Amino acid sequence: MPNQFQFQFHSHTVETSTHTMRTYIQFLFSLLLFSLLCFFVHTKSIIEPCTSSSSCPSLLSYLLPYDSKLSQIASRFHVNISDILAANSVQFPIAAAADHILPSNSAVKIPISCPCVDGIRRSMSAIYTVEASDTVESISDGYGGLASAEQIASVNGINATHRLMNGETVVIPLPCTCLNNVWNGETTVYMSYVVREGERLGSIAAASATTVSDLEAINGLGQALVGPGDVIAVPIAACSSANLNWYNETLIVPNGSYALTASNCIKCSCGPIDLRLQCSPSGLDVACYNLECKDSKLVIGDEYVTHSKYGCNVTLCLYRGHRGGKILRRYAKSISLI
Ligand SMILES: *[C@@H]1O[C@H](CO)[C@@H](O)[C@H](O)[C@H]1NC(C)=O
Ligand SMILES: *[C@@H]1O[C@H](CO)[C@@H](O)[C@H](O)[C@H]1NC(C)=O
Ligand SMILES: *[C@@H]1O[C@H](CO)[C@@H](O)[C@H](O)[C@H]1NC(C)=O
Ligand SMILES: *[C@@H]1O[C@H](CO)[C@@H](O)[C@H](O)[C@H]1NC(C)=O
Ligand SMILES: *[C@@H]1O[C@H](CO)[C@@H](O)[C@H](O)[C@H]1NC(C)=O
């Protein structure tokens, strides 16, 4: 059904009201007063010290500040469109997806690699080109508050003497957490989440299948108090290839999403019923070979069951990593007795 594209990004209702000139001027005035009173708003965010040079997969929960094309979101975060679609479990021809406009206030999951930079976990891969009317605050808003104005200024050495210049590029420090991709002994991917006005840990926990005590423990919060603009790490149960005997590849995929691997030939999904990684051909428009298991008619991901009075025979064709452009697979048989 190629014409029934349905984005499943979580969308919040937006209140559009017509502002009168008077409220607009009041707004400008309070904005001015606000910026004079406090240049930067201090917000809390989780800081994970690190020493290793390894990176881990992580997510950002990005609340769109304005209507944006998917291609604009992808370039804002320096991420591939196909990976954004995968993180949000949207199936979509990529060419058509690029121009798709998502309305402001949609919550989009952005998958980013989380490296160790100067002893703390954060991503420095998003680069922003400054426009004439930009301030560090407006740039921070453009990134949904994931990087505060203060952090952007600090990382880029922006101060009273070094002001933002039109056309200059700045690095956007994005918060991320690895914590070894484990929580309570289970494979976990952490998502950086900006607390909104009126939100409490309870509502955030309920919306993301976790608990207040887990959020407190992960984020080192003494009391269950968070305020708007704070960035917290939310744990998301994930599937792992760790026990699947893959050749030279490890994949960690958050519940409710999929990931592309083997040069986009293979798509591995996680959940939602069990946390078992299910890999099959991606169906994307890329040249892929070796998708069939030898001596069988089964393609990777296929399962063939025959029944008899003694039980059933299950034959499977399983993905097991890739090497030098070659996809590896395993033909497996199992017999279960009744
Ligand atoms: C985006 O996709 C290209 C081609 O598939 C790949 O080379 C590149 O590493 C990807 N970039 C990211 C950030 O994943
Ligand atoms: C502003 O930052 C620059 C480096 O970007 C530094 O050389 C300068 O001393 C700073 N000025 C002030 C007033 O902090
Ligand atoms: C794959 O793993 C083997 C050892 O298990 C290693 O020697 C080889 O360099 C790895 N290849 C790649 C492409 O990572
Ligand atoms: C995975 O996500 C589904 C909904 O998308 C949810 O019902 C289920 O509880 C989640 N599983 C785990 C282990 O978190
Ligand atoms: C199941 O497999 C065994 C051995 O591979 C075979 O002998 C048997 O006939 C098969 N049974 C069915 C129902 O296919």
UniProtKB/TrEMBL annotation:
Membrane-spanning intervals of the chain: 21-42
CDD domains hit by this protein: LysM (cd00118)
One matching Pfam family: LysM
PROSITE patterns assigned to the protein according to its UniProt record, in alphabetical order: LYSM (PS51782)
Domain LysM: 126-172, 191-234
SMART domains assigned to the protein according to its UniProt record, in alphabetical order: LysM
Annotated keywords: Membrane, Transmembrane, Transmembrane helix
Family annotation (PANTHER family): LYSM DOMAIN-CONTAINING GPI-ANCHORED PROTEIN 1-LIKE, LYSM DOMAIN-CONTAINING GPI-ANCHORED PROTEIN 2
Designated name of the protein: LysM domain-containing GPI-anchored protein 1-like
Upper classification of the organism: Eukaryota, Viridiplantae, Streptophyta, Embryophyta, Tracheophyta
